[in-house]
């Protein structure tokens, strides 16, 4: 068999060249060439054969629509984000900061599967077999039958998976795996991409479910490439603050289930435990209301959750800072502009910091109103009333737009004993009833109106 040759492919134009250069000879882009393997002609057919098994072209209506069978992992919160369990031949990428609990969760899941007589394999490239064993003892999985392989070379991992035929294999982590075919170091874009592509092919061909663990860089992207996200069927991200015990696992992409579904866990002495009723864990416990704090109900997947937004507005230097943790910074700048323009609240010479408590990340615009009320509250040094919450999107024209499934959010807040809410008009109950199980609801259409209502309550 002819030896595979190294080629360099441009990420901009897709052209390739046999030699690495700083500039792509085809399109002139700088620093866009990454290493890859050009397979020998004999291999080429084989490569495509494994990707597309010969099957007849069929009319869509004639194809039987079968639900994919799923195997539950036995960890309810994980099954929820996966859409019910793992799927045969599926490839799952699970990302998160170091130390957040990826290895712990996957070891627990593999043990659960193994106990249900599903053959498993845990490939560790970061820890030795002894370290994995130590962790499993700590987790109380004493008689665990999970098979462990400490290996980082792709070809050996592939051979082991082919020989052992596990139903589920975890590769912890994809950044430690390297292929002999490439000269670049493990963890480089080229290596991660090539190794993930081979493992994906193996999963599809052999029916093994492969879980790839990926580290997240400081910038928050999966180290190496986002290309991995396109290759795999499911992308899960671990979120949360390593200093608090709560962890969220969020589905960013799922070919076999709903996206944006989340699983909530608490890190305990004995590993990660699912939190079945997470609605109130992201509230910090103030005995008396403090300025700069506003609670919102956010809807994560199918579950409403109450999250506290904190803001600190403090006099800044010549170029004041805008910082946000758990919220989008560009959106913060936009909300500050809207506050100034439409409600006359000026923070031009102030530093503005906002934070979503507990390390949650909130991407939905329904947080806008709570963020703006927290900022105003901090600026004026006046706390919002006790038992107060707000949600709603705020537009550039200062209008307050409805949030999806508002009634559900309000019911959750009422259940948890909140007493007063400011919400978009379209989300408030119809007619005169502005009261829901002890929760007084104020409906607003504009941001200045919301601030007016707050002034009346303070
Ligand atoms: P780990 O799963 O190693 O994180 P990752 O694989 O994402 O890097 O998580 C390790 C952290 O979790 C570490 O700080 C110790 C803590 N931990 C517990 O609190 N309880 C436990 O039972 C285990 C196994 C770990
Ligand atoms: Mg780990």
Structure description:
- The chain is α/β, with parallel strands linked by helices.
- The chain folds into three domains: 1-43; 71-276, P-loop containing nucleotide triphosphate hydrolases (Rossmann fold, 3-Layer(aba) Sandwich); 281-457, Ribosomal Protein S5, domain 2 (2-Layer Sandwich), CATH 3.30.230.10.
- It contains eleven helices and 24 strands.
- The strands form six sheets. Strands 8-7-9-10-6-11-12-13-14 form a nine-stranded mixed sheet, sandwiched between helices. Strands 15-16-18-17 form a four-stranded mixed sheet.
- The N and C termini lie far apart (79 Å).
- Residues 40-45 have low confidence and may be disordered.
- Residues 102-103, 126, 172 line the site of magnesium ion.
CATH level-two architecture of the largest domain:
3-Layer(aba) Sandwich
Low-confidence spans: pLDDT under 50, at least 5 residues? 40-45
Proportion of strand residues: 25-35%
CATH topology of the largest domain: Rossmann fold
SS field, number of helical segments: 11
The beta-strand count equals 24
Strands of the largest sheet, in order across it?
A: 8-7-9-10-6-11-12-13-14
CATH class of the largest domain: Alpha Beta
Count of the domains: 3
Structural class: alpha/beta
Tell me about the largest β-sheet: 9 strands, mixed
Oligomer: single chain
Helix content: 25-40%
What is the terminal separation in angstroms?
79 Å
Average pLDDT level: 88
- Globular, elongated, flat, extended or rod-shaped: what is the shape? globular
